[in-house]
Amino acid sequence: MKYARLTQQQLEELHPEFINFLATQSITAEEWTALKKEKPEVAEDELDVFSDLIWEGVLSKVEYLENVSELHMHLFHLTEKEMKLLSVKVMNPKIDLRTQEGFGWFKRNFQSDFVEYLTASKAYSEDKNKDKFDLIQQGAVITKGDLYKWFDEFVE
Predict the structure, then answer these.
(1) Residue 152 reports pLDDT greater than 90
(2) Is residue 156's pLDDT more than 70?
(3) Which end of the chain has fewer CB atoms within 10 angstroms, the N or the C?
(4) Looking at the record's lineage, which domain of life comes first (predicted)?
(5) What DSSP letter does each residue of 85-120 carry, written as one string?
């Protein structure tokens, strides 16, 4: 397995796609039921293959990721050739950017001496989607990039 198995909830939401996936494998509903019972390891393998296919599709379309912690924001723009990072560090230990109050403080003070910015870029490894997945595994979430775009204008 290249990525991670989808959660039960994700699999339930993707039930029609999973049925189509099984059909492409020439596995009927009856055969799937029997497979789960008689050869659970084969059924597990099918779930893993399906999960990887879904992840590949999602990751190939991801353009923006955000990883926000108490005092840091790591905003990623995933271009065709590289990963661009806008990093924000708040140097006020009373602030938690994950809260509405903390983010409100940040919006009022983003140009103060209590906020530092850093930009960087990095080429992908041989496996661009794995690089994106690794960021998600580290806590980043897929976004539309509104925060990154706003900062990108501000930082320039």
Answers:
(1) no
(2) no
(3) C
(4) Bacteria
(5) EEEEEE--TT--TTSHHHHHHHHHHTTSTTEEEEEE
